[in-house]
Hints:
This protein has helices at 23-36, 56-76, 103-110; strands at 10-12, 18-22, 41-49, 84-90, 112-119. The protein is α+β, with helices and mostly antiparallel strands. The strands form two sheets. The protein has a three-stranded mixed beta sheet.
Amino acid sequence: RKEYSKTSAILLDSNGLPSAVRWQDEIDRVAANLLLFKNFLGTLTITGHTDDVSSDEYNLQLVLRRAEFVVSELVLRGSPAERFQASSQGEKQVLPRRTGENTDLYRARCRRVELVKIKK
């Protein structure tokens, strides 16, 4: 079981494959957009999701820490902390498995953090 103690240098795309985008660059882009549209946004929910490996309790805590990490990085880039809510779905909302998709790729796609913007 891999502990969430350090971040990966890269992001996975929506297919679960490594992309050329570093997570820092993506957070920078999201933070810039949040600041640009701050007058139109209300609460922002950052939700962590995971695969089916490990216990439900462990997964819920793991992805909550992931979501809180993303919130802290956005706050470091100028977004107000009170605008965010970090939450965890654990493995409650796994993605549908694609036909012929191998297990490692499927699990990689399931491990994600989603941002939901709520307009004012």
